[in-house]
Amino acid sequence: MRSSGINSGSVLRRLPQTLLLVVVAFVVFLPLLWMLLTSFKETAEIYHQPMTILPEHPTLAQYQGITKQALLFPTYMKNSFLVTTISVLIVTIVAILAGYAFGRLHFKGRDFLFVSFLFILGVPNVVFLIPVYLMLSSFKLLNSYLGLILPYVALNLPIAILILRGTFRGIPPELEEASRIDGADVVQTLILVMLPLARAGLASAIVFTFLSIWEEFLFAVTLMTKAELLPISVGINFLKDEASSWAFGTLSAVIVLSVLPALVLFVLAQRYYVAGFLEGALKG
Amino acid sequence: MIGKPVRRATSALEKPALLPEARRRSTSARRRQASVAAYLFILPALVLYVGFLGYPLVRSFYLSLTKYNFIYSAVPAWIGFGNYVQMFHDSAFLVSLLHTGEFTLMFLPALLVLGLGIASLIQSRAIGGRFFQGVIFLPVVVPLSIAGVMFMWLYSNDFGLVNFILSLVGLGHLARAWLNSTDTALPAIALVNLWKYTGLSAVLFLAGLLAIPGELYEAARIDGAGGFQLLTHITIPNLRETFVLVTIWGLIESWKVFALPFVMTRGGPGDATQVLYLFIYQTAFKYFEVGKAAAMAFFLALIILLFSLLTMRLARTE
């Protein structure tokens, strides 16, 4: 491409919009970059005027400080991973079964049931929260992992079902019929024939559900009141309150570490997230 | 699912082709089996749906028709639509409604303009477009509450990045504690929301732009249309669906803004960032006025429904 004279001209013509795009991308990335830079500065440098951009003496002191000043941070992360992973696992299994049934099987009341699942998507979560709180309170399930996982599973099921139903419908029926004629029953057909073909939709549903539960705030802040049970999305709030009395440096290290898992997942699976969003969140 | 015993491991080789009659019989048997299987497959989803979404929805509506304080009332007392009437006499509710509307006006137009602008840049064959699209999309995976904490630091008076940049470009006199002033707190929060979701809007617009056939532009250019006319006569009309999509979605997000003011300002300073969702939450879980909160939550659901229908209707008649 470089060798062609016509293209070098076109590269030149593409320069203005490229520069503009670089500026926009930089501005968007700046807050994250600033956190990263701050987390490598010494505490004195963070609170120094005039401010510096690059760390003068790069140090890991802020990350080490977490073990002294943000004692609950590892607990928050553990809670987040635990609740998110279990919820996603349950959502995935339940949504595969339901998505397959809605997409591929015939039964009475199918369309009515499916529409009632979708109807829920337009309702703000706070509507469900109040009765769920009262219910969990009477079952003594407030401040328990189960009490958070169950509502999370329910809230994320409709979109996961919607995505998987669409995926299953997109698979040519001949493959399924061939499997049935070979004598496989419904379960075998689903697991051995359909699931491998539904990989992309499955990935979208999993990535989308994971990120949505990872960042959930409303239910977590209401249903969990004991500090040692909080996920990071809520726990960070407590660390912030402490930050007014101690160095912001530790908090910047905490922020970098808590953003990291979702960022890694996103970089690995960006297209699945976008697909999941287009398929699920918008159509719903 | 896994635990179900595998009945028979057959393959096409072991099974001779069936006679038509036998096949028909087995087909209807299979259909019955499939129908039973379908109900079993739906069951787990249905139980969770009814238990944690369906029942709470009905219960919430019932509570919205009662006077019920979770701490002080023994049982909910039926008052019909009283809560729905009373909330419009509650100035705190009206203020939160106003702020939510203002938030929408700060967030939504910018979301549309920036989304379309960035999408056009990427589509205009900027070098590395895919890469930069990824970077701009990145904030979408940063949890809102964490973004909130992060921006509190950026907005802070003495050591914040925003004021630092202002002083670098010679606008130091504009520096202030952005979240502590009633004028700037709400826009500052709207900006965080925008930071998180602009990339998403851009991706949606890009998908819309790529779906417009190139011949339309060529034909218009032959007719002598300039860049601006291309934008107003071809690009925007053909993006109607995308506009509707992003508008509905942006409206819903605006009316559900909660974690940001919760983390960053707790509705303050004064009531400058008191928005509807936060007010509903506080009514239910700070003052335990469950009936009142449920009524406001249903009012919110109604608004979201109306906005969605209205936007779709406008798009169709235009």
Produce the secondary structure layout:
The complex is a heterodimer of chains A (284) and B (318).
Chain A: H1 5-13, H2 15-39, H3 43-46, H4 61-69, H5 73-104, H6 110-119, H7 125-138, H8 145-169, H9 173-181, H10 186-197, H11 199-214, H12 218-223, H13 232-243, H14 248-282
Helix pairs in contact in A: 2-14, 4-14, 5-8, 5-11, 5-13, 8-11, 8-14, 9-10, 11-14, 13-14
Chain B: H1 20-64, E1 66-67, E2 77-78, H2 82-86, H3 91-123, H4 129-137, H5 144-154, H6 161-168, H7 185-210, H8 214-222, H9 227-238, H10 240-255, H11 259-264, H12 276-285, H13 290-317
Antiparallel strand pairs in B: 1-2
Keywords:
heterodimer; A: 284 residues; mainly alpha; MetI-like fold; 14 helices; B: 318 residues; 2 strands; globular; disordered N terminus
In short:
Chain A has helices spanning 5-13, 15-39, 43-46, 61-69, 73-104, 110-119, 125-138, 145-169, 173-181, 186-197, 199-214, 218-223, 232-243, 248-282. Chain A is mainly alpha-helical and 284 residues long.
Question: Would you kindly provide a written description of the structure presented here, covering whatever features stand out?
Answer:
The complex is a heterodimer of chains A (about 280) and B (about 325). Chain A is an all-alpha fold and about 280 residues long. Chain A folds into 2 domains: about 5-65, no CATH class; about 65-280, MetI-like fold. Chain A has helices at about 5-15, 15-40, 45, 60-70, 75-105, 110-120, 125-140, 145-170, 175-180, 185-195, 200-215, 220-225, 230-245, 250-280. Residues about 1-5 of chain A have low confidence and may be disordered. Chain B is mainly α and about 325 residues long. In chain B, about 70% of the residues lie in helices and about 0% in strands. Chain B has helices at about 20-65, 80-85, 90-125, 130-135, 145-155, 160-170, 185-210, 215-220, 225-240, 240-255, 260-265, 275-285, 290-315, and strands spanning about 65, 75-80.
